[in-house]
Amino acid sequence: MMRTAGIIAVAIASAAFGAATTGWAVHTGRGTGLSPAVLSNTGYDGPAAVPLGDLAGGAVPRGPIEMKNPLGSGPGVIAEGKKMFNAMNCSGCHGYTGGGGMGPPLNDGYWRYGGAPAQVYKSIFEGRPQGMPAWGVALPPEEIWQLTAFVESLGGSVKPGQAYDSRLGDDHEGSTSKAGSPILEGQ
Amino acid sequence: MPHGTFNPAPRKSSGDWTSQAGDFANSRYSELSDINEKNVDQLKVAWTFSDGALYGHEGAPLVQGDTMYVVSPFPNRSYALDLTKPGAPIKWMYSPNPSPMAIGKACCDAVLRGWAIGDGKLVYSLLDAHVVAVDLKTGKEVWRTEMADVSKGVTMTSSAFIADGKVFVGNSGGELGVSGWAAALDLATGKELWRAYSVGDDEHTLIGDRYKPFYPHLKGEDLGLKTWPKGMAQHGAGAVWGFFSYDPETNLIFYGTSNPGPRVPVQRPGDNLFSSAVFARDADTGEAVWAYQFTPHDQWDYDGVNEMMLLDLPINGKMRKTIVHFDRNTYAYVLDRETGEVLKADNFAYQNWSTGFDYETGRPIVDPAMEPKPEKTLDRICPPDIGQKDWEPPAYSPQTGLVYLGAFNICMKLTNHKVSYIAGTPYDGMEMERFSVDGPDGDWGQFIAWDPIEGHAAWRIPEKFMVMSGALATAGHLVFYGTSDGWFRAVDARNGKVLWQQKLSSGIIGQPMTYRGPDGVQYIAIASGVGGAAGVQAGRDGYPPRGSTLYVFSLNGKQVEGTHSSAAHPEGEAPQQGAPGSRG
């Protein structure tokens, strides 16, 4: 399973080079058994194209990574996202209210991989090295955006348009809160 | 009334400490008495060592001859420290590079509960479900065995245990719907000799002709399958993440199994054998000889993994070969270790899920009001999931006949949610808040001296924070333990009077040990580095940040004499006093 996820991550990175390589990415995706919904995430024309991070952390600081959640943040979307959050056992790691546990908190304003909607989407889609599964293999983009909307509603997320500022630590205040992950605090 | 006894095998030299408990019986008792009740107030730090890993530090350092062996939590680096030199410098370091994915698959922090020494090797489990053996002299890897696929949620956090040329290991992942097992590896090669599942048909649980449990409800064909709804045993857990013990007389090993999966009981009607239970198995073949289930159909995640102490005790006037076991469900059990019969079951702390114990059937009596139902909140169940005592191992003193254990004083508010099995994710469903038995300002911890023959506490020390460290008893009439807010204490084994204490840099969830160094001096060692399940207190005032430091104490801080390798000035040249820029 993780090997498949690795292929997807490579495909996404390659898409950064432009439409010409997108064809390669989709071609590479062929034979992986992935759904069209998933494959659409590797190109630019899907319903929810994955915004790309800058290469090697040094390129264009703004751009698609600042995009809003295309499904918005209405109560209906958040409710669907919450349902999904429990159904996919996200709550088992991140806590039923996002306070953390086996996995990091999602409500404390601290993000290893970025807390803007598109960055949250990318983390859910690609998975992360310390045990976060790559849900892009299993879930269509709409459901990942619903999950993203729920995570945004937990109170610790970064507003679209602040992804870059947040990376530099310029968008948040310090905190004396003791809430947060009972297990992974300080990591 | 005579006290009990125990077999101190395989200990040969009273100065070494070569397994987590110091012996096969899990006594954690040392004959050393240079440090004793009369002089312990002179205990001071001799030296310290940081392994730089900021996860919970749950293991005890081991000492053989002139070297100490320490393994860090993830990334599970091991260090050999030279005890013949001042400050115990590093002889070698070995880095196994386990997969970081394992961090997020471990339920309760990326911990390691210990390591083992035997046949010239240091042997331990990696968080990503491998076992490695490292040459004691060179630090080179001798063998590495893959035990399971970490991406499916299998981790390994318990201590490897060595007896009779074999390494015994078990898996973690009771919260992720893994299949729980214990396995024996050949100490020389790492080759797997047998693997016994906790849940499943008789073929997988290694139940055959030699299996003779005491209680009728534990007899029958394929009980590890038939006590589950169809299709549910496959992800029924029964992980093996506590300590092993070994009786060389009968060649049996003993260990406990974890909670059943999922943690939501309504999804798995039945006794759910052999979860939350103890197995006695033949060390050579893994065949089950008997089993006993502490919490049938475990509805609160109580597990049965806590250690089995092999003590010989006079029970009702007759010497019995027993297992003393403090379960997370808050019963202190005395079992006959040859048959699995329950001789005693007494509450060692406050609980409200069980109204009594039925000695006829060997089953606890459950209060129906405490049985969780999906989406119905129960406001106060005591203890919570982690019990009134978790995995932290007690110590036994033959001087007093008492068992000393770190314990809790907590309850939970619980709401269950039905869950689906998705490989590599939690198969859990318990939404919880924990709090003190005694209300918002109440204590969360306690340290207990327990009389296993009479079945009651001799004395208790209330503690504001959970006591999640192991205990150490010594012939110096002393018992050592640490608190999760960082106090390391020495108390009089007879009456619990605190004789010495030292605040360490982080909270303590490790296991204290003692050894006689190559210089002939007795030392006491304990790791300071909070984490693990003690993290449920993270929201409380005074809960400390993480740490990574091993502390080694001696009387007046005495340590090996010699030239300090870090001495900065050349020979024959005195350091300048009060020179410009000096902070003197």
UniProtKB/TrEMBL annotation, chain A:
Q: Which domain of life is it from?
A: Bacteria
Is Ribonucleoprotein set as a keyword in this record? no
- UniProtKB keywords: Heme, Iron, Metal-binding, Signal
Q: InterPro entries given for it?
A: Cyt_c-like_dom, Cyt_c-like_dom_sf, Cytochrome_c_Oxidase_Subunit
> What are the residue boundaries of the Cytochrome c domain, all occurrences included?
76-155
Extent of the signal sequence: 1-25
Q: Where is the segment annotated Disordered?
A: 162-187
**Annotated protein name in UniProt:** C-type cytochrome
From TrEMBL, chain B:
Q: Which cofactor does it need?
A: pyrroloquinoline quinone
InterPro entries, A to Z: PQQ_b-propeller_rpt, PQQ_MeOH/EtOH_DH, PQQ_rpt_dom, Quinoprotein_ADH-like_sf
Residue ranges of the region described as Disordered: 1-20, 562-584
Q: Which Enzyme Commission number(s) are on file for it?
A: 1.1.2.-
- Answer yes or no on keyword Metal-binding: yes
Is Signal included in the keywords of this UniProt record?
A: no
Q: Which UniProt keywords apply?
A: Metal-binding, Oxidoreductase, PQQ
Question: Where's the Pyrrolo-quinoline quinone repeat domain?
Answer: 17-342, 466-524
Record-level Gene Ontology MF annotations:
oxidoreductase activity
Q: Which family does it belong to?
A: Belongs to the bacterial PQQ dehydrogenase family.
PANTHER family assigned: QUINOPROTEIN ALCOHOL DEHYDROGENASE (CYTOCHROME C) (PTHR32303), QUINOPROTEIN GLUCOSE DEHYDROGENASE (PTHR32303:SF4)
Query: Per its record, how is this protein called by name?
Result: PQQ-dependent dehydrogenase, methanol/ethanol family
